[in-house]
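ligand=fe (ii) ion
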Amino acid sequence: MRSPLLRQLTRGLPRPARSFVTSARFKVNANTPTQPEIASKIDSVAESVKVNPSKQPDASNKHHATDKRIDLSLATVEAVKPASVSHRAYGLSIAAPGVPTISLNYTYLRDICKCPQCVDRYSKQRNIRTNDIPTDIRPRHIKWDGEHLEIQWATDIPGASPDHISRWHHSYLKKPTLDTHDLHDASNKPVTWDRKNMEEHQQWVSYEDYMTNDAKFAASMRNLQRTGLVFVKDIPDSREEVEKIATRIGPLRNTFYGMTWDVRTVPEARNVAYTNQFLGFHMDLMYMNEPPGYQFLHCLENSCDGGESLFADAFRAASKMRRQHPKEFRELTERKMGYEYVHEDQIYYNERPVFELDKSSKHFRHVNYSPPFQSAIPIRGKLRFQPLKEALDVFTQILESKEMTFDLKLNPGECVIFDNRRIVHARRHFNTSTGSRWLAGAYVDTDAVLSRFNVTSKKQPDAWRAADPLKHVPSVNKDKKTA
Ligand SMILES: [Fe+2]
Ligand SMILES: [Zn+2]
């Protein structure tokens, strides 16, 4: 039963013109006090009526009262029909036409308050800590209009202002975190490709559009996100351009190769940093703790015979292997390979499985494949070399098959951008007696690229949607497991 004091108090709650009190317990009259006045009244009265000394864990702290019946009776609810709210001791559910029902706990809700008291409006940093939330956090007033949920708290964080109101749009409550690494989310999942798909649907954007047209840049980012491989053309003939192209997405990743680097071979050079031999499929810098996420290769010269670039979607190949060779597939998810770079002034080493899966969904997170940089195979327990060798053999055969391999010869003025954690790259042998080959390279970390994807999709939603390759090429993603 509610106390007469409470009944008297709750009569004072204001009623906005568009809404009505669904709980219908509490009538509203016209002479309403201001919100802070109500808040302080409720707080002081609530304290005086809800405390049951025998149950209260800490009589000195009003935020630890425990009588749930009284707490519940304190909460008033406004819902604009046909939206509806149901609330219980520890949480509430909101529903409305066109809005999926959302059920949330009060502690959770208090924690995700984004109001200017809780989150600094400029720095976006939180002013509250999760452990500051009272164990008996309860609302005193809930308002839901089918779009926004508002809560005023009966037992707020100590020190919170009495006029504190938490307010969220339902879309935020439905998806409060932006897990940019969530590759299996329907809106993000990789659209995997093979040679045929890539030959027919490779994505080119002109330098001019990429640098200056936000919609076309967004389209290019959307394709990069889905397929992991896009191309820029008509780039001015300058060594500076690779940096400009990369930093349009995010800051350059520095490594011991420098902020940008060159893959350059000139005819009969005496001292070449790079050979002109075939370089098999690999990913870069697998020996680093955080290998660079995206790679940029801008072609400045390519007049040699040969020197074509090869690419393959390792997610596609791994996915095929999962279906056709599950035992060998498992071997490459369980066994860690070692990758190293050991030179006089650099010693790098890391171990990772070839197939790195999301722990819960088992979708691919990364493929880590780089035979040129492989170290001695790390031995943990019994050495089972043969199964590993067989598994690697199966994967390599799929990856290097004609069906999987997309090749093209980059021309001067063209740049490839690809996901280094998913797409393997290789280079055919080239003949330096017939010309020269010069690519300028750069890396941008995954964090920065995922951030760019998110921002771009928000700022250019139409271009982002229209460019989705899933729309144009439904056949390429038949393989659900790849996502
Ligand atoms: Fe490479
Ligand atoms: Zn707040």
